[in-house]
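Fold this sequence, please.
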Amino acid sequence: ALPSQPSSSDNNSNNTLFLQRQYANRYLTSFQTTAVAWVVCDRLLWETDGSLSSASSSTMDLHSQMKLQQRQFFAAQTLHTKCRLDHDVRQLLQQQQQQDQPNHSTTD
């Protein structure tokens, strides 16, 4: 038997999914650069699981545990990126300030 060809509706569905993922990626990448990302990510890292707050983490179903891990990974990755970028910006500003200061060395 020959493998069936993907239908045009399958292609449209895959295209739509691809576009949705691109949009989500752009949105989340943009979010990572905002000031509020610090607060949101801090809360995500401390979260156990809001939807199951009365249940202990040992009783969470696998799907809930995976969703929680994905949110926490995103939060950790965001904070890591923000720290790196802030550090790089701070270094650049210090270098710029050093270059802008006049050289006060005297020659005899």
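The mean pLDDT is 81. The radius of gyration is 24 Å.
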